């Protein structure tokens, strides 16, 4: 029996079988994928094979080859990865510029990871109603949008309060298996409630003390979209740690740096200190942004071999 994993609670998996049923399944304790050290060997979106005795909960016995997947570091001091989702047509990173603030470092780390794992990505700036009618906030919204559009990313503006951009987002996701990711409190659940009438996912107020979101989604789950396609909703995360990046290739995942690097004097230029570095020249003349370069350096630091070495 084969099917697609549509829910992962940590202990059990819900699989939508190819014959139209939904079954609860589990994995054996020694089930691991070769070459990938992860906290969750099976992810939402995985195509799997099931086996089990009649009347008993089936076991997931195999994962079919993945088209792609996207992962992040499981924790700040871990060498293990957490697979966010598999077999994704497009990743939609939901961010907010106010209440709460999504840092550009978080955005850049997510986009670089999507590039590394061959997942097309769109930046969705939500709660744009908080920017309208305030000249300074509106200017910042336009600056952030211009930055990522100039690199080549699609940037969408949405508001569940006013409905702005929701129809355009629905159209962009039609017929696709789309990943929804972002910090806690950016409004992923509220957007899904707008996209899927009657869904009524639980939402929570933003903390007034720290201006941060509180987790309302506790596990990953796939929801069918009216008219075709699906959304993979994921728990909100505070940070986005990269993993298994070769330091020499990090610049490849920043499209504007990769383009500029063709002019570097050395083919193995790290864009940090070498003479004749076209990337740093582009940084000086502002064709590469300071914020993007800072994010690049932070991922290089992640790739340092001793970063996650445990102290004696």
TrEMBL record:
Gene name in the database record: rsgA
Enzyme Commission number(s) of this protein: 3.6.1.-
UniProt-recorded name of the protein: Small ribosomal subunit biogenesis GTPase RsgA
Organism ancestry: Bacteria, Pseudomonadati, Bacteroidota, Bacteroidia, Bacteroidales
Assembly and oligomerization: Monomer. Associates with 30S ribosomal subunit, binds 16S rRNA.
Limits of the EngC GTPase domain: 86-238
Binding site for Zn(2+): 264, 269, 271, 277
Family per similarity comment: Belongs to the TRAFAC class YlqF/YawG GTPase family. RsgA subfamily.
Domain CP-type G: start-end pairs: 77-240
GO biological process, one term: ribosomal small subunit biogenesis
NCBIfam families per record: ribosome small subunit-dependent GTPase A
Pfam family, one: RsgA_GTPase
Molecular function terms, GO-annotated: GTP binding; GTPase activity; metal ion binding; rRNA binding
Protein role: One of several proteins that assist in the late maturation steps of the functional core of the 30S ribosomal subunit. Helps release RbfA from mature subunits. May play a role in the assembly of ribosomal proteins into the subunit. Circularly permuted GTPase that catalyzes slow GTP hydrolysis, GTPase activity is stimulated by the 30S ribosomal subunit.
A single cellular component GO annotation: cytoplasm
Binding site for GTP: 126-129, 182-190
Location in or out of the cell: Cytoplasm
């Amino acid at each position: 029996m084969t099917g697609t994993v549509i829910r992962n609670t940590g202990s059990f998996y819900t699989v939508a079988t190819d014959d139209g049923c939904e079954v609860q399944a589990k994995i054996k304790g020694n089930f691991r994928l070769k070459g990938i050290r992860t906290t969750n060997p099976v992810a939402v979106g995985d195509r799997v094979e099931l086996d089990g005795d009649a009347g008993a909960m089936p076991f997931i016995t195999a994962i079919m080859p993945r088209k792609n997947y996207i992962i992040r570091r499981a924790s700040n001091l871990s060498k293990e990865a957490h697979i966010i989702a598999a077999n994704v047509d497009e990743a939609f990173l939901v961010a907010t510029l106010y209440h709460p603030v999504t840092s550009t470092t978080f955005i850049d780390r997510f986009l670089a990871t999507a590039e590394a794992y061959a997942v097309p990505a769109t930046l969705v700036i939500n709660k744009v109603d908080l920017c309208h009618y305030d000249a300074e906030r509106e200017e910042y919204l336009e600056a952030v949008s211009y930055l990522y559009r100039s690199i080549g990313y699609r940037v969408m503006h949405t508001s569940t309060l006013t409905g702005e951009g929701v129809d355009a987002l629905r159209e962009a996701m039609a017929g696709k298996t789309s990943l929804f990711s972002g910090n806690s409190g950016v409004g992923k659940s509220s957007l899904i409630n707008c996209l899927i009438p009657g869904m009524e996912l639980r939402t929570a107020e933003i903390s007034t003390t720290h201006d941060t979101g509180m987790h309302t989604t506790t596990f990953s789950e796939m929801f069918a979209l009216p008219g075709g396609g699906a959304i993979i909703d994921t728990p909100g995360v505070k940070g986005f740690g990269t993993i298994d990046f070769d330091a020499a290739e990090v610049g490849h995942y920043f499209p504007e740096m990769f383009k500029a690097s063709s002019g570097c004097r050395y083919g193995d230029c790290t864009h940090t200190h070498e003479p004749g570095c076209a990337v740093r020249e582009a940084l000086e003349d502002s064709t590469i942004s300071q914020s993007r370069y800072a994010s690049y350096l932070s991922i290089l630091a992640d790739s340092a071999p001793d970063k996650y070495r445990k102290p004696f």
